[in-house]
Amino acid sequence: MRLRELFEATISSVLPPTKVTPEQAQYAYSKLSKTELAQLGTDNYISHDLWPIFRQFMLMRSMASNAGLDPELTAYTPGETLQLLSHPEIKRWHDEVVNYKIPPEYKICAFVPCAKTKPWLNANKGIYKSYNKIINDGKYPVYFVTISEPLGVVPFSLWEDFPQYDNPGLFKDNVMRTGGLFTRDWLRLFGTKQQKVPFDSAAYSKCISILSGIISKFISNNTHVKFISFVEDPGVPITAKNIGTHSDMLNTSGLIDPDNRYNKREKARAEPYDYVDKVLSKQQGDDLSV
Question: Domains of the chain (ranges plus CATH)?
Fold first, then answer.
């Protein structure tokens, strides 16, 4: 699915507010890091006055796409994400999930990327349609675990019962971080050329370190399974500077053999099912017994 198609519904159905309350503006500024606050209005970054309106617009879109979303569990920049990682609900999740035990009947654990559409159990669209089909096929002793920002990991058994969040703030690509807004969208919605959303690189690195630590503890607590992953973007080496957030987490943890790190799908925009099924079939032939 193309990026534009992924976000089209909320781009077209939700309009930005004409103004925000002083309390909403104060809240929007308070979520940014000092670095991100200083970026506002400089070097094509979104202006200081527009930021609270833009953030409220992003929140409205997040809530339009997920009725169960907790508005407090949203983050649209690295600085916001770093604050979110200290939220009591997120910290409670981290404390519990690092001690989660994968059931002993599983021989392999496959990390997969998170997705905007939530919850993921029995999803009938997007990449989770493929993962659920593989689970329902029952051909492989594989346990799926989602890599998530800000949750770290979400085991398959909790795909219907996890804090409902929206956290695009760590995406390195500005279009992705704004929920798919291109130049024509900025002009139509805000009457301006495309703007950059604040991005604190130091806060990004801290977030990746924290989240990779959650992944590392989870792996260390489940040594009875073999870990593989399906989070890499086709054609992007795991050593590239522009790798995705999930790849960055796995790089920092350093606990999965590069040979066991696979792409999300065979090629861009393809459904993952056939590719993941093929990899798991090979893994079963090489390493597993059922």
Answer: 3-287 (3.40.50.10630)
